[in-house]
Every structure is written in C-alpha cells, then in structure tokens.
Amino acid sequence: MRGAAMSLTAAASGFVVFLLSVSVIQGQNGWRVTYTSTQICAFKGSAVEIRCSYTYPSTINGLVTKVKKRFWFTELGNGESVDLTTISEYTQRVQYHSENNDCTLRISDLRERDSAEYKFRFITNHSTGKYTGSPGVTLSVTGLQVQVSRLEVSWSSNWAELKCQSSCPLPGHPSYVWYKNGQNIQGQTSDSYSASFYPADSFSCAVRGHEDFPSPSVLIQGQYGLGVTYTSTQICAVKGSTVNIPCSYTYPSSIGGVATTVKEIFWFIQQFVDLKTVSEYSGRVQSESNNNDCSLRITQLRKRDSAVYKFRFTTNQGGKYTGSPGVTLSVTGLQVQVRKSSNQTELKCQSSCPLPGHPSYVWYKNGQVITGYTSDSYSASLDPADSFSCAVRGHEDFPSPSVCEFTYSLPLT
What we know:
Blueprint: E1 5-9, E2 16-20, E3 24-28, E4 31-35, E5 39-43, E6 47-50, E7 52-55, E8 59-60, E9 63-64, E10 67-75, E11 81-83, E12 94-97, E13 104-107, E14 116-124, E15 130-132, E16 137-142, E17 144-153, E18 158-166, E19 176-180, E20 183-184, E21 192-196, E22 202-207, E23 218-220, E24 227-230, E25 234-238, E26 243-245, E27 247-250, E28 254-255, E29 258-259, E30 262-268, E31 285-287, E32 296-298, E33 307-315, E34 320-322, E35 327-332, E36 334-340, E37 345-351, E38 361-365, E39 368-369, E40 377-380, E41 387-392, E42 403-404
Parallel strand pairs: 5-16, 25-35
Antiparallel strand pairs: 1-2, 1-6, 3-4, 4-7, 6-13, 8-9, 10-11, 10-14, 12-13, 14-15, 14-16, 17-18, 18-21, 19-20, 19-22, 22-23, 23-24, 24-27, 26-32, 28-29, 30-33, 31-32, 33-34, 33-35, 36-37, 37-40, 38-39, 38-41, 41-42
C-alpha cells in the first residue's frame, strides 16, 4: 500500500490527525495482508481507522479465486475468531471498507475496553483459501490523568507543577485544555501547567477537540505548608471488590529550626476515629505511610462502606491537618432491568453509580454463562421461564439477583 496513512478522527468534531507510518506485511505464496501500522494509540471517545489491504492469487489450479467472506476480529478466550459486527458491544460502532482489496476498519465512540489486538481475515472459494493477517494491530485506548509532578508549599504560598498524562503516546502532538475549579484556563495548550493555588483549588485537563472526556479532577490542598492531595473526590466501586483511594500529603520540613516529624496519620469517617480501630473495618483496611503516600485500601466492600473518607495527620510542631472535603465512596450492587418491545426483550445490567473504566460484564441465563456477551446490555427473544443475572467481569462472586423475563424493573440495591 503506497502512501497509506492511519487517521484518528474525533467522534464529535472534525478534528483529524494523520500519522505516516511504515507498512507491515504478512503473506506467503500470493496471500497477503498489509497493515499500515501495528501499534495505535487513540483517545477515549474518538474514532479510529485501522487501514489495511489484502491480496490473493487470481487463480488456483485454473479456478478463479473469489472472496466469500471478510471480517475483523479479536480473539476470544477460547481462541475463536468472531466477526466484530456480530458482537453486541461493537453494535453500530464498527464499519468495514472493502472496495478494491481495501480492508479498513473504523471503530467509533472508543472505550478503554476496546484496547485489544485486531486482525483481518478473509475466506475464498478454495478449500484452503483462508488467510489471517498476523500479528495484527494493537489498539490502545487511553483516558487522561492529572499527575502532580512537583509541589512546593510554604507558610506564605503554594505552588504546583501538573502534568496531563495518558497511558500511551497520543499521535500528532495534540493540544490540551486545562481547567481550574471547572473553568477553562485561557492560553494553556501544553500537557503541563504550573501555577500557585489556594487550598480548595481543583484541576483537570482534556485534549482539545475531546473536551467531553476530561481527566478526573485533582484536588490540591495546602495551608501553611500542610496539605493533602486526593486524586479523585468521587469513587464508585462494586460490592465485594477492593478499592484504592490514592492520596498524598505534605508538611514543612522544619519550623523555627526544628525538624518536623509526623506523629500520627489515619483515615476516618466521623469524629476523627481511626478506621483501623473500627470493628466493622477490622482486617479490611490498609493505609500507606511511605514517602508522604497516604493511600487507603479497603477490601471486601459492603454497601454500608459508602461514606465520605478523610485523611488526617498531626506533627510534633502542633500542626494538625484534615484533607477536606474528602473522598466520597459509593459502593454499588448490580440489578438487571428489563425493557420489553413487541417481539424482543432488552436487559440492562445497572449500578447505582457510574463504574470507572468501562468494565466488561458477564451474563447468565438460568445460572449458565452466556458466552460472547460482555456489554452491559443483552437483547434476545426470551422464554418466559428463563431467568437472567449479570456480574462485572472479575467480580463474578457478586452477581445481581436473578430476574425473570416478565419482570419489568427492580430498584437498585
């Protein structure tokens, strides 16, 4: 393929980035697939085009070669090759372009769980005429995070250097947008931002053209050299899972020539009571204390763990500091909601708060796993006697209650 390029197109705008790359070819005896690139990083919410072309012998043993089927796939856990257009979570998000031996794949409304290796396969009228382009194209879909790369606090001022980071290198040197307390910071287009801040200021960032998909807000707190930084102030987690609440804290190295040391650190919900001393959290909480890391880990989450968690520390100089407003943790179970039409029933696996990272789901029919369905919805013609439940993949021990096809909806628990 000469002059081939990969394009990354925003789903909601005309923003396009073109990347020139070297073609990668797999082929033998006239059978060939040419991928423009085997590594692509794309932004969550955008659309990606994975370009390729394919060739095959015009005739074999005097019989003209005809292509009977062509499709893109990602290998399932059982090694099965399933056409993307038949998988529910890709419905209306994938398009194939197949004119003149072009095998371009387009995926819109990208989600982080779309990260996978994609391969093109075609089948001809010959008994041995099947070919898959391997190793395929590895797509990495990334969101954004604000990292505090440098922090300076003193009695009179606070200063921070922030970095807008992604899990893979975005193409084309994108331009960024920065937000302070939800308001656009004019004139800031770099992936880094440095400024002084007040105790309650929060910061987030986005790629220009993808402002609908900003990073979580980072709250930087500081007063007289004492400060707590929460990575996020809102966290949703599945009942039965483990949650990590990232946090860091700072304090002046010395006051009046006397070195500052930390006497006590703890997390609490109310009345400054250390969670580790609360019986219902016994054996389920861990907190870090190395290198000013104050991250909290809670295992075997229960619905009643939903609360506002705050970190507090005291020093030998009489300094006491509580990171407010804290982190609101919402622990949710799952519930199957049923919506019926004239000839079909749609099931939706719902939670009481938005789960992070676009999780993958498991569906059960009469207690048995329904293979090939990883979306939060499932549609089919159902028998009235069937029962259905769902779970988040990785947390199968905590499925939703089972519902029957005639049940229309249930409240979330």
